[in-house]
Amino acid sequence: MASLALATFALCWYHLCTAQTFSDNILVASNNGIIYTIHFWEDGLQYSLSEVNRHAGCGTNPTWLTLESDRLWCLDEGLLSGQASINRFAVSPDGSLTRREGLNISAGPVQSVEIDNGRGLAIACYGGDPPVQGGITTLATTINGSIEGGKFLVLPPLESPGPEPAQTVARPHGIFLDPSDRFLVVPDLGADMIRVFSMQNGSGSIQLENQAKMLAGSGPRHAAFWTHNNATDRLGPAYLYVVSEFVSTITVFRAVYSSTSLALEYTGQTLSTLGNYSNATAVAAAAEIAISPDNRFLIVSNRNDTSFASPSSDSLAVFKICQSDGSLEFQQLARAGGNWPRHFDLSPDGRRMVVALQRDSKIVVLARDIQTGSIGNIIATMDIDSTDADGKEAGLNAAIWMRTPQA
User: Fold this and answer.
1) Which of 107, 205, 226, 295 has the maximum number of C-beta atoms within 10 A of its C-beta?
2) Where is the signal peptide (predicted)?
């Protein structure tokens, strides 16, 4: 008994003395027009969340946050004001924001990515009520991020409407830079199409090169590229995983490069984002997709599937990526921590996930096993004030991590 007690004491002493302390800032976009900076504190098995800053400089409906170093881009979809915009903020180490500039843009921006080694920004614009077509906005920026000018490429009208009510016009819902940094891949939810654009570095011009047709009525929303950790050739092999909102599936494409173009070849694999629990597919609406920092797992969020009860919760699906051919194997359906997980983000070390629960107006931080890829329990949660001018809970759209190790 004495030896057991000594061993237990030694184990506890080791944990307390070796456990790292981290101070993480989480940026949250609320649909009431406010960007919140939330402090996540972790010390061993102790966790807390607290608000440290808020900024109302991103219009009426902040939709998407793109953070690069100390520069934050915030998209305002402009649903309430009728005028969308892109806004640039400087981010201090403590997470406070200073608005540097903004530019009015059109057609409902929903996702952005920096291009041309940080000298430009590409934005997927969802479009508006018909006949407002969606399109792609490209901005040229200076070395410090200041906007120099922009262009808007309208996507062509549909030959015929799709089976879903939203599929009457082209609706880009995401935009992604390929592994070679030469092409933009755009899931078009309205056209059931994945469009590939080439970029002319430094000019802000893009040109349609290829497109891959998706299942009618599937509604491709977001995507993620994957290349093998040991790949030495940036042009391949590479795979693209596309999550479709209306049918809650993941479709796997192989990226095929030539000297001047990128084509997408369907591998034959399409999986339910609910894994083996597909009874809720008809009402589920898949949303976000991301690859773990160690490049071994794929995670997707499901809205409105209510796969878990007591308490009710939507889900997060985990898939293992086969390192030989990029195929996926379902591994886990985990609790999202609440309702309508529109967006999530993995911490840089992969041990934590923050989930923005849009309709619950709260964020949750989940534990994650980096060895197995499995998502665990809630370790911290916080209600976020998303009350709009009419006194209604407008909900949350995005949450992303910042991490600062403490001495």
Assistant:
1) 107
2) 1-19
The encoded tokens of residue 213 equal 């047709």
pTM: 0.92
Mean pLDDT of 186-205: 89
The per-residue DSSP string of 305-335 comes to: ---BTTTTB-EEEEEEEPTTT--EEEEEEEE
In tens, the pLDDT along 4-57 reads 444 434 444 434 444 567 678 999 999 999 999 999 999 888 999 999 999 999
Is 358:384 a contact under the CB 8 Å cutoff? no
CA 241 from centre of chain? 13
Per-residue exposure over 72-104, b if at least 16 CB sit within 10 Å of its own CB, e if not: bbbbbbbebeeebbbbbbebeeebebebbebee
Which regions of 273-314 does DSSP assign to beta strands (E)?
Answer: 285-291, 297-303
Residue that has been written with the tokens 């997408």 in this structure? 264
Tokens (6 digits) for 168? 């009457």
* Nearest-angstrom CA–CA distance, 318 and 107: 33
Please state, in angstroms and as integers, the Cα–Cα distance from residue 391 to each residue in 56, 264, 394, following that order. 16, 46, 9
User: Checking phi first, is residue 370 left (phi over 0); if not, alpha (psi -120 to 50) or beta?
Assistant: alpha
* Burial class, 335, CB count within 10 angstroms (exposed 0-12 / middle 13-18 / buried 19+): buried
